[in-house]
């Protein structure tokens, strides 16, 4: 069986699932969001990480139906958590550039929000800088998405090669500092300077900022000292299966 036919089967047979990585405000100690990350429960190979199939899904175009499934499942799960009386915590979902370029993306997302009943303010869409290359297309689409009431964040910020001018033209709510900068923050003065500058820039642009890939207490302290209070990373928690995410929400509420 080729990977393509296996992945198609996985979608049809409901073998994909989402794990949720908490995002914490270290100033308040509260969960401020969950990032939904896809996994594949393979009948023979067990739980397959996205690194092993997302790049292929991107190349083959299967990322579009997979991404649509992930968006709908994340919205459905979040609404179910609310209905069960758990703490109300926004969910963020990754949008690949293929989805971003897809016909009627905004209408599709609007329909998913209506079908699942999720408050649009609780959905955050993570796009990458690659989505900002066609400035006019991206500007129109992002403004259209904002009218739905969703939040927009830029993922892996600092690793793309697009112009910074989009930051003032687009309705962006949040930057996610790429984990490659956070990794060496304590040993590489250039990375420390880049991270401090990104944080300062978001403050001047009235955006939120979150650091990804935080793995140590020292990194957390550096970020806190530099006024970046939103943190995601293994130091706090890996992506969690649904029961573990629920357990965490109960602890925090
Ligand atoms: O969870 P993990 O770190 O193994 O994920 C590896 C990569 O797969 C991450 O960079 C993440 O952005 C990507 N990924 C995970 N879930 C999704 C998804 O639903 N859609 C898209 N486009 N990418 C995803
Ligand atoms: O780029 P994106 O935001 O999609 O990346 C999310 C991925 O990063 C997830 O697949 C998750 O497993 C991984 N990840 C999350 N926290 C950490 C961390 O602290 N260190 C490393 N190396 N990877 C992380
Ligand atoms: Na992401």
UniProtKB/TrEMBL annotation:
Keywords: Membrane, Transmembrane, Transmembrane helix. Residues 1-253 form the EAL domain. This is Bifunctional diguanylate cyclase/phosphodiesterase. It comes from Paenibacillus oleatilyticus. The chain holds residues 383 to 635 of 648 of the full protein.
């Amino acid at each position: 069986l080729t990977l393509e036919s296996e992945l198609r089967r996985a979608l049809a047979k409901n073998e994909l699932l989402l794990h949720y990585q908490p995002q914490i405000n270290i100033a308040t100690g509260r969960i401020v969001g969950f990032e939904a990350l896809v996994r594949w429960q393979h009948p023979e190979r067990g739980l397959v990480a996205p690194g092993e199939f997302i790049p292929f899904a991107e190349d083959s175009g299967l990322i579009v139906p997979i991404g649509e499934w992930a968006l709908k499942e994340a919205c459905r799960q979040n609404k179910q958590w609310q209905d069960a009386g758990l703490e109300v915590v926004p969910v963020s979902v990754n949008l690949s550039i293929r989805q971003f370029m897809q016909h009627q993306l905004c209408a599709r997302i609007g329909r998913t929000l209506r079908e699942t009943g999720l408050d649009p303010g609780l959905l955050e869409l993570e796009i990458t800088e690659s989505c900002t290359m066609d400035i006019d297309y991206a500007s129109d689409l992002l403004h259209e998405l904002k009218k739905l009431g969703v939040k927009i964040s830029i993922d892996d910020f600092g690793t793309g090669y697009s112009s910074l001018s989009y930051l003032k033209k687009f309705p962006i709510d949040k930057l996610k500092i790429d984990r490659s900068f956070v990794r060496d923050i304590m040993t590489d003065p250039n990375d420390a300077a880049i991270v401090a500058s990104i944080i300062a820039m978001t403050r001047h642009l009235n955006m939120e900022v979150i650091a990804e890939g935080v793995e140590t207490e020292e990194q957390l302290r550096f970020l806190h000292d530099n006024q970046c209070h939103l943190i995601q990373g293994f130091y706090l928690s890996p992506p969690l299966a649904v029961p573990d995410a629920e357990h965490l929400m109960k602890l925090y509420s």
